Amino acid sequence: MRRFKVPEGFGLGLRYSFLEEVRPEGKKPDWFEIAPENWMDRGGYFRRELSRIRRDFPLVCHGLSLSIGSPDPLNWEFLRRVRKFMREFEIEVYSEHLSFCSLGGEYVYDLLPVPFTEDMVKHISKRVNEVQDFFGFPIILENITYYYRPKGELEEWEFINAVLEESGAYLLLDVNNVYVNSVNHGFDPYTFLEKVRLDRVAYIHVAGHERFGRILIDTHGEKVMKKVLDLLKFILSRIGKVPILLERDNNIPPYGDLLDELDSLRRALNSTLIP
Amino acid sequence: MEKIFRVALGRDETKDQRLKIYRDLVFSRLEDALSVSFPIFKSFVGEDFGRLVSEFMKNGPRTPILLEASREFAEFFRKKEDPLKERIPFLDELVLFEWLEIEVFNAEEEETSEFSWERTYRLSESARLVSFSYPIHRVEGRGPEEITKAKGKYNLLIYRDPLDLEVKSVDLTEFVHSLLCDVDRGLTPKEALLRRKETADPEEVGPYLERFFRELCSKALLVSRSVHRSLP
After folding, report:
1. Chain A nearest CA to B219, separation (Å)
2. How far apart are CA B127 and CA B160, in angstroms?
């Protein structure tokens, strides 16, 4: 099985709203992350723009609809479309979510939590292996935000570690999700980070969240909060340099503002890494 | 897992505030996506749009691609009985028209073909021939009553202009529309024209049609059947 290589440095989630502003010169991210579901099998404007951006930037695929935890069979027609798209655009990194989004052939377009059980570890690991065999390289799984926790005998970190161990997949550690879950479910995020397999981290997601009453929602609609940045610094102090991706899906500011935020992250974190 | 899934689709009610978050998230994601896909349809149905999204959600989208859920929504709406359709009888056509615009906008590009009266052609993925009973392509700025009163027959070619990649539509006469349909089914332009020699003199209309066909070919809207899609 081939190894994958996540581009180094600081990436940005590519969004339609600033597509035409992306330029290879001047201030720019080191790479972009895209959801294949939003780009594949599209010609015309979107294909032309993505082809243009691909000429100048490395791309990473971050899927939404794999539904790795679903009791449904894997959707091979969908996976073939993803693989075809990745080959066309010469993308060699594929990450997805440790969750499910389909049942009985129906889809919800959101990330639903799976129970943290030994049975689910086996179920997901088996499917991850099938997907990895299909792609020919290891995939990367992201810890999700969950507002409701289905019954299960494992802690979240135990569950994640067990899946990584049994499947050979790598971890896309979403630090904002760790923070949001720690507040919503009352655990210490630093303890979580002490326990989870940081040595398996392929890259990191950071984003903003918002408070709705007593709950934090992972809206990706605000700047990264200081407490999330502190957690990120803690991780970097443990594992050193790792690719970092800034996500923004709601209240998307002008492209220039996103690049400024990415620059601030870069400065704050690079100073952490310099002894 | 089934419980959270059913709540997320709005099929089951729950008192659990945390479970309700999933229903709200799924609804909001679908409503946002469908609002972008069907802005004119939404402007006509007004507050009923949320109800339609909820009903569609409960019905259960079956595609992993959110954009393709818009096609399923259009099919869902066109099949369902709804009191809105009595008040606004062109909604079925409008929702289809807006979906076709999306399809054409996202169609894969194809190579242009030379025109010949003797060759066979098909419409490319970036063109659609449709017949509507209402002027669906000219609804903006007009009220439902005005559009309803304009009931008739509207033959359209919906296409993506390769120059600016924008989707446009052009009115076709019944004669040109049916002739293009025949060409798309596999007749050569010459055969399609000769079939109509009782209603149109080939010598007279030939030059005009040739100009039109050449333009369609130059924009890759009409492509030779011997040329397959250029892109994988």
Report:
1. 13
2. 7
Task: Spell out which residues of chain A touch residue B30, defining contact as CB-CB under 8 Å.
Answer: 109
Q: Write out the residue limits of the CATH 3.90.930.50 domain(s) in chain B.
A: 109-224
d(CA A99, CA A82): 18
Q: Do A45 and B22 touch (CB under 8 A)?
A: no
Provide ipTM, 2 decimals: 0.94
Q: What are phi and psi of A206, to 5 degrees?
A: -130, 145
Q: How confident is the model at residue A4, as a pLDDT?
A: 82
Over its length of 232 residues, how does chain B's per-residue pLDDT go in tens digits? 999 999 999 999 999 999 999 999 999 999 999 999 999 999 999 999 999 999 999 999 999 999 999 999 999 999 999 999 999 999 999 999 999 999 999 999 999 999 999 999 999 999 999 999 999 999 989 999 999 999 999 999 999 999 999 999 999 999 999 999 999 999 999 999 999 999 999 999 999 999 999 999 999 999 999 755 444 3
A148 vs B contacts (CB less than 8 Å): 4, 16, 18-19, 21-22
A87 in Cβ contact with A43 (< 8 Å): no
Output the six-digit token pair for A164. Answer: 């990584």
Interface probe for A, chosen from B2, B31, B65 (most Cβ of A below 10 Å), is B65
The ranges of chain A with pLDDT < 70 are 274-275
Judge: A71–B62 Cβ closer than 8 Å, yes or no. no
What's chain B's Rg over C-alpha atoms? 22
**What are residue A69's phi and psi, to 5 degrees?**
-95, 0
Closest partner residue to B62 (CB to CB) among A44, A107, A148 is A107
DSSP per-residue string spanning B120-175 = -EEE-TTEEEEEESS-GGG-TT--HHHHHHT-S-EEEEEEE-TTT--EEEEEE-HH
Picking from A45, A100, A108, the nearest residue to B26 by CB comes out as: A108
What fold characterizes domain A10-273?
Answer: TIM Barrel (3.20.20)
The architecture CATH gives domain B109-224: Alpha-Beta Complex (3.90)
Note the pLDDT of residue B232: 36
How many whole angstroms separate alpha carbon A175 and alpha carbon A235?
9
Does the beta carbon of A114 lie under 8 angstroms from any beta carbon of chain B? yes
Phi/psi of residue B22, nearest 5 degrees: -65, -40
| Chosen from A108, A211, A216, A219 to mutate, greatest number of chain B CBs within 10 A | A108
Could you say which of B25, B67, B165 has the minimum Cβ distance to residue A44?
A: B165
pLDDT, position A274? 64
Q: CA B188 from chain center: how many Å?
A: 26
Token couple for A262: 């990415």
Which of A132, A200, A194, A144 has the alpha carbon at shortest distance from A171? A200
Closest-CA residue of B relative to A84 is B232
